[in-house]
From TrEMBL:
UniProt biased composition (Polar residues): 83-92
Keyword Zinc: yes
Keywords linked to the UniProt accession: Metal-binding, Zinc
GO molecular function: metal ion binding; nucleotide binding; Ser-tRNA(Ala) deacylase activity
Native species: Cutaneotrichosporon spelunceum
Domain of life, per lineage: Eukaryota
Name the UniProt record assigns to this protein: ThrRS/AlaRS common domain-containing protein
Length: 509
């Protein structure tokens, strides 16, 4: 038997049998608990006039969306203030944040992986109506708590609101994005279930991000598998398969409650509430607290980002839990539009059409590999010549100013060749400095560790002494006869003279 919940919600295009209440709700209080909120009973309801139950000044820290979305997106509060035109930044400009509980709401509090809604609360006073931004909504046990901003200067007596009516509207672009992604996730997980690929977890960045959401699977997919699954999802979307919600009292969920994907994730502080199962007709039935599209046509399109497995591979690249990224609904369009622009931009960067991009990049990569190999062998040959040509007795000094040899690797190779023919007490000093670039590099090597160290120490002192105001410019150290350091700052005539002084002095010593 299906019960109806009084009072009825305003009519929308959502079919009447979307909401299927399988328990007698006659005893329920007027204040709707999370699970039975208007947004969870009719996902297309954009606004509702409802009564204020309680208000309190918010002591909560600024809202932060769970998951990776909070790092990548500007906070939801900035999104809310920008849609409402406040655009404020500092606390003094922002006004006061209030926590408001309502009898019912179209503002979804976050849950089940779906980020919270934002919106506007319209408060009508004696002479005017105030549009107060709802910056977010959180669930506290069974209650939905709206975070409502009262802008500075707004003459709203919040404390007088309980018992009065307000109108709340959801930020619809944000909601549709989250909703289509969430329904898309249920569909995708259901299609993957039929391939023995259970969803281990999922997460989505909040609007206005256009980044993909992911579901975590026991292994990676091949491109062919991903394309098949995407095709299957889009076939179901084209069929406009119906979606509805079964509502049961918690503890009376029916037969398959425990095996659900999302039942495992029901928060421990949600007790005494309702259990909702989202049913995609003939395809899936899973516990879910989110807002779900009334049929799959609202999702529009679902795209699976090609997995990291090489595109022609017939075996997946990973047998351990792996994220599969997807976009659905309006986000699929914005995500793919951006990808298309990047593709054109990449083509322009190397001067080929989009169709030629991949073969050209493969060719460039092959060339680069050959060039790198050639450069490496030339560098080794040059190091051998440089090391071989340096004096094998006393203190030899080699200075270079070439980008291609400005590294310890080159110095080390040259030093190794030099070392082969050097006398026991000989020391070689390498310096490398590029015009206008810091740091310069210094390497000292010799067979006699004590002698190498004394030359290195003298070089450090001399270079640090060039400009005493610059602090300690030489940083480094070493052991076993080889010492390396970086020399901060500009390398000029005085640095060259400092090194020359040490080399000449050590040679005389
Ligand atoms: Zn769900």
């Amino acid at each position: 038997m299906i019960y109806t919940l009084e009072p009825p919600l305003p009519k929308t295009l959502t079919p009447a049998d979307y909401e299927r209440i399988h328990f007698n709700p006659a005893e329920l209080p007027r204040k709707r608990i999370v699970g039975l909120l208007a947004c969870q009973r009719d996902p297309l309801l954009q606004e509702l006039t409802t009564r204020v139950v309680s208000v309190a000044v918010s002591a909560a820290p600024p809202l932060a969306q769970k998951g990776r979305a909070k790092k990548k997106d500007k906070s939801s509060s900035s999104a809310a203030s920008s849609i409402n035109g406040t655009g404020a930044n500092t606390p003094a400009e922002q006004g006061k944040l209030w926590e408001v509980e309502l009898e019912d709401t179209v503002i979804f509090p976050e849950g089940g992986g779906q980020p919270w809604d934002t919106g506007v609360m319209y408060v009508t006073g004696a002479n005017e109506t105030h549009a107060l931004p709802i910056e977010g909504c959180v669930r506290r046990k069974l209650d939905a708590v709206h975070m409502v901003r009262v802008p500075p200067g707004a003459s709203v007596d919040m404390a007088a609101l309980p018992g009065t009516d307000v109108r709340v509207t959801a930020h619809w672009e944000r909601r549709m994005d989250h909703m289509a992604m969430h329904t898309g996730q249920h569909l995708l997980s259901a299609v993957l279930d039929t391939r023995e690929l259970p969803t281990l977890s999922w997460a989505m960045p909040a609007w206005p991000s256009t980044e993909a959401a992911y579901i975590e699977l026991p292994r990676a997919l091949t491109w062919a598998e991903a394309a098949e699954v995407e095709g299957e999802c889009n076939r179901r979307i084209r069929e406009s398969v119906r979606v509805w919600i079964d509502f049961n009292m918690q503890g009376d969920e029916g037969v398959d409650g425990e095996s659900d994907r999302e039942n495992r994730g029901i928060p421990t502080d949600y007790t005494g509430g309702v259990i909702r199962h989202c049913v995609i007709e003939g395809i899936d039935r899973n516990a879910c607290c989110g807002t779900q599209c009334p049929d799959l046509s609202h999702v529009g399109f679902l795209h699976i980002l090609p997995p990291s497995t090489p595109h022609a591979a017939t075996e997946p690249s990973s047998r351990v839990p792996t994220r599969l990224y997807f976009v659905a609904g309006p986000r699929a369009v914005s995500h793919l539009a951006l990808a298309s622009r990047w593709l054109s931009q990449a083509g322009q960067a190397i001067g080929v059409s989009r169709a030629e991009l991949v073969p050209r990049i493969e060719k460039i990569e092959a060339n680069r590999y050959d060039t790198d190999a050639a450069a490496k062998s030339l560098k080794a040959e040059l190091a051998s010549l440089v090391g071989g040509a340096a004096a094998k007795s006393g203190v030899a000094w080699v200075h270079r100013a070439e980008k291609s040899t400005h590294d310890y690797d080159f110095m080390g190779m040259a030093a190794a060749v030099w070392n082969g023919g050097a006398e026991d007490g000989a020391v070689i000093v390498f310096t490398s400095a590029l015009p206008g670039t810091s740091p310069a590099l210094l390497m000292v090597q010799g067979k006699d560790e004590a002698r190498s160290k004394s030359v290195f120490d003298a070089l450090q002192a001399a270079l640090n002494g060039v400009d005493p105001d610059a602090g300690k410019r030489v940083k480094g150290g070493g052991a076993r006869g080889r010492f390396m350091a970086k020399v901060d700052g500009k390398w000029g005539k005085r640095e060259t003279e400092a090194v020359q002084g040490v080399v000449d002095g050590s040679a005389r010593a």
